[in-house]
Structure formats: C-alpha cells, structure tokens
Amino acid sequence: MSTIAPPTAKQKSPFLQAVAGQGVILVIALVLVFWPSTAINWWNDNWFFELGLGSVVAIIMYFFLYLLLIVSLNFTDTFHQLVRAIRPMLTSFSQPQLVLLAVLAGTSEELLFRGVFLYWLTIGIESGVALLGIELTKLIMLSEGVSVSLLSIMSGIFLSSLLFGLAHPISKVYILLTSLIGVVLGVIYVSINSMLVVIAAHSIYDYLAFYVLTKRPDWLKIGERLENAG
Questions:
Q1: Distance CA 131, CA 142 (A)
Q2: Dmax over Cα atoms in the chain, in whole Å?
Q3: pLDDT (tens digit, 9 = 90+) per residue, 138-180?
C-alpha cells in the first residue's frame, strides 16, 4: 500500500484541506440558517435523549450499509472503489482528527440540507401551490409557527435529499444510497422537529465509517480486497 508523503510548504495537509472544506460549508450553512426567512428547531426539552436517539439512528443506518454489502454485488464494487479512493487519506488522520471531521461534516451538511434546503424547498412548494389557488390541509409543523401540508413537506424532503445525494457524486449507486439516507434523516427531522438528532446521527455515522475504514476494514469484508489490490 502506498504511503502519503508528509506535507511540504507547497503541499497542504489533507486534514487541513478536509477541515477547510467542511468549514466553508458550515459558514455558508450558518449564514443561511440565521437568514430572516429561515426557521429551524435546534432541539427540544430532552437534548440527552435526542443525542441517544441520534446514536441509535446512526447504528441502524450503518447496519443497513452492512446488509447492502452482503446482498448487493454492485454496491460492494462501488463501496470498494470508494474505500480505495479515500482510505489512504483517512489512515493519515489521528482518531481525534477523524472525530472532528465527522462532527464538522455532520453539523455542516445537516444544517445546509435539512435545516436550509428542506425548509426553503418546502416553503417554496407550499407558496407555489397556494398561488395556483389550490388549498391543502396544513397538518405538519415545520418549525415554530410554520405549518405546511403533507405534499409540501414530502416534496421538500425528496428534493433536499436528492441534492444531498448529488453532493456526493462518487457513483450512481452511491448517489442513490446517500439520497435514501437523506430521506431517512429528513423524515426524522420533520417528525421529531430536532436538528440535534440528525446532526448526532450523521456525525456518529460518519465516525463509524471512518473508524471501520481505517482500523477494521475486515468488519465489512473488504480487507482481503484491499490487500490483493494494494
């Protein structure tokens, strides 16, 4: 397996590049979150329970990934390509660095895709339907003081999840998988009305993925492939 040369004055640290990329997304997301036309609910009364729920969701999503690796050869090949592409970089990071990167990614991406895009798309669809003179029953509380119809919220979840998938263009299969994860996180966010739950789920899921890829690739039955291809 090839090693990563230490960064020079002209070669930036891969970790700093990764953190900088997620940092830019986080700044953009925060600006849009605090924009006057955006409203999200950060957490409810029991934040400890919500962190625990996010952990459970992350474990379930990772178990689903494991099942896909077992039953789908196409997904296994796609996942192997992903591992070959990013594992050399990830193995150069320390565990605290991986934790930081996972939290940054989970926070920035959830704020942007669930906090901003889901909200804007839902409100936009609701407004568009109203302009057409169609009256829909507002059944779902999107945020405090903002109720929307089931059609609008499901459309917002679908479209924001599609954007989430397209933001991870590793392969068609991976875009589909990431979009499905986006749908799950979108439904959870709307149902529980807590950004903390989906941030925790996303961050913990990412760290589980980082840990297994760097320390225990054999858990996903890709260890032999890495050795044979290395």
A1: 20
A2: 63
A3: 777 777 677 888 999 999 999 999 999 999 887 787 888 899 9
Asked if the model's pLDDT at residue 40 lies above 70, the reply is: yes
Residue type, 212: V
Q: What residues does each domain of the chain span?
A: 17-229
Mean pLDDT of the chain: 84
195 and 114 Cβ atoms separated by less than 8 Å: yes
Q: Which single residue is written with the structure tokens 């986080």?
A: 26
Helices 47-71 and 172-192, axial angle in degrees (round to 10): 150
- Angle, in degrees to the nearest 10, between helices 172-192 and 73-90: 80
Q: Angle 195-215/73-90 helices, nearest 10 degrees?
A: 80
The alpha carbon dihedral of 189, 167, 99, 225 has a sign of positive
Query: Residue 67: exposed, middle, or buried by beta-carbon count in 10 A (0-12, 13-18, 19+)?
Result: exposed
Element (H, E) at 147: strand 146-149
pTM exceeds 0.90, yes or no: no
